[in-house]
Amino acid sequence: MTPITEVAGRRLALSNLEKVLYPATGFTKGEVLHYYATTADALLPHLRDRPLSFLRYPDGPDGQVFFAKNVPPGTPDWVTTAEVPRSEGPARMVVVQDLASLMWAANLVTEFHTPQWVVGDPAEADRIVFDLDPGPPASVVECCEVALWLRERLAADGITAYAKTSGSKGLHLLAAVRPTPSERVTEYAKGLAVAAERAMPKLVVHRMTRSLRPGKVFVDWSQNAARKTTATPYTLRARPEPTVSAPVTWTEVEECRSASQLAFLATDMGPRMQDYGDLLAPLFDAPSAGRLP
């Protein structure tokens, strides 16, 4: 029998709580839901007003994994949805605005992925993102070196960057910007990726061609396009272990000497939240958002 619980005044059916989703650690679906409940205060602001793309893995990362953007069948009528324009025609997508909606979405076993814009005007971005993806034998250590270069380059343009792990093998840089056409943000991000490659040709590549990437860091600037999404801060990832896309301090980036130093599991996040709060909270300070040159 599926247990029914009440979350913020909403009745939810939470299923298969004892099911092991991460066999490497024995991490269960119930623990997934507990993780999202305890990180909700930090996570929800990063989801709010942004249409949600789901990467679902209901049988764990070793089972079927599929990506969905449309509102899933059976979505409760109290979950906020929004019509979002697409080149192939408008779509209706979920927008997680509150704790009950977060727990409903978490019960589907999902990674949370969001765009760099909020509902209302997808042509106007309020974030810029760089996805630093290492090609083996490069690792997050090399990503940190590139991140520090990009931080200084962004700062020279009056843009303050913050870092988080991808929850996989790389690093993400995020910054708040004044509302700017997504095409312009993409153009600017590509320009910085090209500049990084010129400055560090043995370390950086800005093109997606996989044959160019072994031993280098691919600076993926393309996720700034209006149609693209990036793993949301604090989301769990569909990996062998319950890894988290975790905000990190610049000191941690500067001192990183091995990949294990910037690998965080769900169980690590409680102590980190106590120590740091939300390291990405400054992204919500609108007056400090940067203006693209």
TrEMBL record:
PANTHER family: BIFUNCTIONAL NON-HOMOLOGOUS END JOINING PROTEIN LIGD (PTHR42705). It comes from Streptomyces justiciae. This is Non-homologous end-joining DNA ligase. InterPro entries: LigD_pol_dom (IPR014145), MtLigD_Pol-like (IPR033649), NHEJ_LigD (IPR052171). Its EC number is 6.5.1.1. GO terms for molecular function: DNA ligase (ATP) activity. The keyword Transport does not apply. Pfam families: LigD_Prim-Pol. Gene3D superfamilies: DNA primase, PRIM domain (3.90.920.10). Residues 28-279 form the DNA ligase D polymerase domain. NCBIfam families: ligD_pol. Keywords: Ligase.
